[in-house]
Design brief:
- The chain has 376 residues and is α/β, with parallel strands linked by helices.
- It folds into 3 domains: 32 residues; 226 residues, Rossmann fold; 73 residues, Arc Repressor Mutant, subunit A, CATH 1.10.10.
- Helix content is 34%, strand content 20%.
- The protein has 11 helices and 16 strands.
- It has a 9-stranded mixed beta sheet with strand order 7-6-8-9-5-10-11-12-13, sandwiched between helices. A 3-stranded antiparallel beta sheet has the order 14-16-15.
- Strand 3 and strand 4 form a beta hairpin.
- Helix 2 crosses helix 3 and helix 9 crosses helix 10.
- The radius of gyration is 31 Å and the shape is elongated.
- 26% of the residues are buried.
Length: 376
């Protein structure tokens, strides 16, 4: 019996032999025919030999995505505007050569006046190098829903304008109230941007914020707030983490790049020199990241307190975990956890008391030796 796939192959063979356009491949689902003309199997020889043009040398090509991640109030918008200005004029960005392209900035937070003021300041800081002729500004504050609802029409406008790089600030606005920690929802939104890239043949640059906590203990890919897709989706991840030399008056960061299709780039240190981010030239180590100081009083040395109490109670056969917790003003659970860490080198369980503890033999001997040396 002839199957549907046999029929399609036979018709495609006849079409290729005659030079005609082969019929659309289809798939039956719930009684409906689906168009699969978008699905194409290619041989290795059919794949393109030449790469797409590099927008930022060694970091980003056309139709790719650059995701920038950094902490709150880390000058992310300033950085995007600086990058946009460099790309629009073919100026080096953090010493990476760029290609002069037309750039569209979709800003969902700043007012039109603020965008213009910042771009003028950036131009002034660069001693007047370049101009604004390749920049297209779309101040989208309060228009996120309209933008995303009409993204196909926006895509056509981008193509008509000849734009090669689209900058979105900030990208989380596109979630429209959805959970930024839900991988499925975030991945779905970012997939929409990938389609935008591919169909409009533009590179997209967006920013996202770090999670709370100590970023110095995390890899660059794990610092984004919410779902892991934020850091794993872009072709180039550009992460900024506070350097140990960072101060309020001299903000310093470690810049790290995670690249999908370029050779690795060594991390380096950058300084905020208002209104630009520039490479550090003083030789700071990029691995020295700033730890977060935890609020509150320093942790107690519970181990020392426990041993002091057990020495005092040694003649009574030790004491209970509850009395130890009450005496040191910690919860019973915290005390149990700390007691486990001291077993069996420093303390042992008491044979006389329920949930009781006493000094280990080695610790008791050390204590007796100390008392002898100290005298009466």
């Amino acid at each position: 019996m002839q199957t549907e796939s046999d029929r399609i192959r036979r018709e495609q063979g006849r079409a290729q032999a005659s030079g005609a356009t082969p019929p659309k491949q289809s798939s039956a689902k719930n009684g409906k025919t689906e168009d699969l003309s978008w699905l194409k199997f290619e041989s290795v020889d059919d794949l393109p030999d030449q790469d797409l043009p590099e927008i930022i040398q060694g970091l980003l090509r056309a139709s790719e995505k650059l995701g920038i991640t950094a902490g709150s109030k880390s000058f992310k918008t300033w950085l995007l505007l600086y990058l946009a200005y460099c790309l629009a004029n073919g100026l080096p960005f953090l010493d990476f050569p760029t290609k002069a392209v037309k750039v569209a900035i979709f800003d969902f937070e700043l007012s039109r006046r603020a965008i213009k003021r910042r771009l003028k300041l950036i131009q002034k800081q660069l001693c007047g190098q370049g101009d604004f002729s390749n920049l297209r500004i779309c101040a989208m504050r309060g228009k996120t829903r309209k933008f995303y609802k009409n993204i196909k029409a926006v895509q056509k406008l981008v193509i008509t304008e000849g734009v090669e790089v689209v900058i979105i600030d900030p990208v989380y606005k596109f979630l429209l109230g959805k959970d930024e920690s839900a991988n499925g929802q975030v991945a779905d939104m970012l997939e929409g941007l990938t389609e935008f890239c591919m169909e409009a043949n533009v590179a997209i640059v967006y920013v996202h914020h770090h999670s709370k906590g100590n970023q110095s203990e995390r890899d660059a890919q794990d610092r984004s707030s919410g779902a892991g897709a934020w850091s794993r989706d872009p072709d180039c991840l550009f992460d900024l983490a506070k350097h140990t030399a960072w101060t309020d008056s001299d903000p310093i960061f470690t810049a790290e790049f995670i690249l999908r299709d370029f050779p690795a780039v060594q991390k380096f240190v950058v300084r905020w020199q208002w209104p630009l981010l520039v490479r550090d030239t003083t030789g700071l180590d990029p691995d020295d990241l700033k730890p977060i100081k935890k609020p509150g009083r320093p942790k107690k040395d519970l181990g020392a307190e426990i041993l002091a109490i057990l020495r005092a109670e040694d003649s009574n056969g030790g004491t209970t975990a509850k009395i130890l917790a009450d005496s040191t003003l910690v919860t019973h659970r915290t005390m149990q956890r700390r007691l486990k860490e001291l077993l069996p080198a420093k303390i042992v369980k008491s044979v006389l008391l329920t949930d009781g503890y006493q000094l280990s033999l080695d610790e008791r001997n050390r204590f007796e030796d100390f008392k002898k040396k100290s005298g009466p």
